[in-house]
Every structure is written in C-alpha cells, then in structure tokens.
Amino acid sequence: MEPPRDLAPCLIGEGTITEPRDMIRALETLEGLRYTYTVDGVVMAEGTAALVKLMADDESATLLVNGCLFLNTESFRYLTFSRPEEEGGEWVFELHGDGSLLRLVPEDSVEPRTEERAAAARMMENGGVDPAPFAPLDAGGDELDQRRTPRAPSRLRRAPPPRAGW
To answer: How many CB atoms lie within 10 A of CB 54?
Structure first.
C-alpha cells in the first residue's frame, strides 16, 4: 500500500505563506490599500496606494511610486494574513523581509486600478516597451559604470528627441 500523498496547506482566516505563488493569490484580493514600511522597527514610509501589479520575479524590485504599488513576492521571505480584532476586524497582510516589514491594509477610498494602468502593465509584460529610445542616467565613462552589466531598466530615462536641422 502506498503512503498517502502530502496535502497542500489549507489556510482560512489567518496564516503564514512562504510560497510566492500563494502570496500572490492572497494579495490579489487587494486593490486600494494603506501601507506602512518599516526597517529594523523604524517606520520608513506610510501612506495609501493602488496595487497595480503582482509578480514573482527574482530579477524585479518591489516599487511604490506615485501612489502605485508594483509588488514582487520574491522581495519577501513570507507573508502573514489575519483579521485582528484590535484592528477593527480589517484584514492585515504583512510581508516580511530580512529586517523589513511591509504592512498592507485594504482601503476603499484609494482609487483602484484603472484600465489605463492595467494596459500599461500588460504592455510591459508583453515586451511592448522598447529600451532603444532610452539613455543611461549616468552616461559618464567612469570605470565603475563600465563594470556594470547589464544596466537595470530603472536606471534609464528617455533620450531627448533629435533637433530639427541637425
């Protein structure tokens, strides 16, 4: 007789998740949110944002820019979720990194993802962003820059258009 197969976890109401795909499933329930980002117990940033993109990619960063959160579950070791009474029964999602904590609480007053934001995310996913018209921010020829390969897309900016008559 074969031993019974291992069962996948079943988490209801609260739990701890270590698998990036499972973290994405839990976080897909968010659109608008309040966040608090702490490092070594010190609050570094807090505010509101719209969750624009979820990913599990070991080459991308988690970014919170202009009220938009691009969350990469590979930026964190594990996620805990619960609905504590001391928080008024609101869902709380905590993403734990090495000394860092990103705490997310759903917020209805934050504008959810718009079709324009979703279209921009789809364009990026489908390779619709052409890096050719971009130039490095630090285009100097110092030795340190020459050793960096490849350049990260976040270090790029749009090159100015060519001038007429040149």
So the answer is: 19
* pLDDT per residue as tens digits for the range 106-134: 998 776 555 554 554 544 555 544 444 44
Residue 75 corresponds to which tokens in the numbers above? 């930026």
d(CA 36, CA 154): 23
Helix, coil or strand: residue 4: coil
Q: Identity (one letter) of the amino acid at 30?
A: L
Helix (H) or strand (E) holding 82: strand 78-82
Task: Report whether 100 contacts 79 (CB < 8 A).
Answer: no
CA distance 99 to 61: 17
Q: Count of CB atoms within 10 A of residue 44's CB?
A: 12
CA 68 from chain centre, in angstroms, equals 9
Q: Which two tokens stand for residue 69?
A: 């959160």
Q: Give the pLDDT confidence of 43-76 residue by residue, as tens digits.
A: 999 999 999 999 999 999 999 999 999 999 999 9
Q: Which residues pair with 48 in a beta bridge?
A: 34
